[in-house]
Amino acid sequence: MALPVVPLRGGGLLADRFGRVATDLRVSLTDRCNLRCTYCMPEEGLAWMPREQQLTDDEVGRLIRVAVDRLGVTNIRFTGGEPLIRRGLVGIVAQAARLLPRPKLSITSNGIGLERMAGPLREAGLDRVNVSLDTLSPARFKELTHRDRHADVLKGLAGAAMAGLTPVKINTVLMRGINDGEAPALLQFALDHGYELRFIEQMPLDAQHQWDRHEMVTAAAILDSLKPFNLMPDVVSRGTAPAETWLVPGYIDAAGQPARVGVIGSVTRPFCGDCDRTRLTADGQVRNCLFATGETDLRALLRNGATDEDIAEAWRAAMWGKKAGHGIDDPSFLQPDRPMSAIGG
């Protein structure tokens, strides 16, 4: 049975000056993580956000409700840091799943603990999961993440599939001279297990600010390495999705559909013109772009007695100021002060 259509309250959608409308909300639940991926943070970790600055479970739930009820958000992805270490995660998902109209709910995780959490998250209302996996080698995984948890990630993937959090997607970042030779093997692994693989160009969001465009493995290089699979263009439009997808002849996915592989070329093949995302950090700041250098404080509004419509209007204003693109190719580009772990993917 189709869910009832509930009209928006207040003054409308999250539109910007360029005609884009944000319907996809990325909610960072924590800046903490139990891995130390080299392209994200140093081995010793970072200075974590004080607990009192982090949104409470109720505050997260209220902002999600405002986004769905008043701003037209239809997709919510929970991110981190590592969202599985947020103690209230299952309750936050359940609260979001009760909203009308019900948003689609997903999570981006490193997979550690997912084997145990997949069932409760599915029961709470989670629809799907993306799991980061950059290598099939346990030794290389330990080198990349500074943790010996490769087997746990594989168990998390299997647990997600068993719980019905499908399609299970894998996110992979290739790094020159480290794991760039693994692209074919990673795709074969995904095909063999019914997972959907997404390669992502490394972006300038590392805490160390050591990103070097010349060392980045580009979308073109990734596709070149996958030539043995004889990929075919996907006839289905990607719409506002960040990944360009290709069909893999001779393979089907877990749902019996043609198998696909995606490439997210955020740097060399930007999709800014079709972006439909708005971001909420773990401390309640709205970011209208992953690479934004400014933020709008919704936490202060929440804690100072603002109404839902006050919050919605501040959110609309934040999105109206969104730039046309991320500007990575512009000589004046400045990497955001917050690393990816503190922004949310």
Layout: helices, strands, pairs:
Blueprint lengths: L13 E2 L5 E2 L1 E5 L28 H15 L3 E5 L9 H9 L6 E6 L4 H11 L3 E5 L5 H8 L4 H14 L5 E5 L9 H11 L2 E5 L18 H7 L6 E2 L10 E9 L5 E7 L12 E4 L4 E3 L8 E2 H6 L4 H13 L19 H4 L2
Parallel strand pairs: 3-4, 3-12, 4-5, 5-6, 6-7, 7-8, 8-11
Antiparallel strand pairs: 1-2, 9-10, 10-11, 12-13, 13-14
Largest sheet: 12 strands, mixed
Shape designation: globular
Query: How much strand content do the residues show?
Result: 15-25%
> What is the average per-residue confidence, as pLDDT, rounded to a whole number?
90
Topology, number of strands: 14
Give the CATH level 1 class.
Alpha Beta
Q: First CA to last CA: what distance?
A: 33 Å
Q: Show unreliable segments.
A: none
CATH topology: TIM Barrel
Provide the helix percentage: 25-40%
- Looking across the biggest beta sheet, what order are the strands in? 9-10-11-8-7-6-5-4-3-12-13-14
Number of domains: 1
Taken in chain order, the helices and strands follow as EEEHEHEHEHHEHEHEEEEEEHHH
Number of helices: 10
Oligomer: single chain
Structural class: alpha/beta
Return the CATH architecture: Alpha-Beta Barrel
| CATH homologous superfamily heading | Aldolase class I
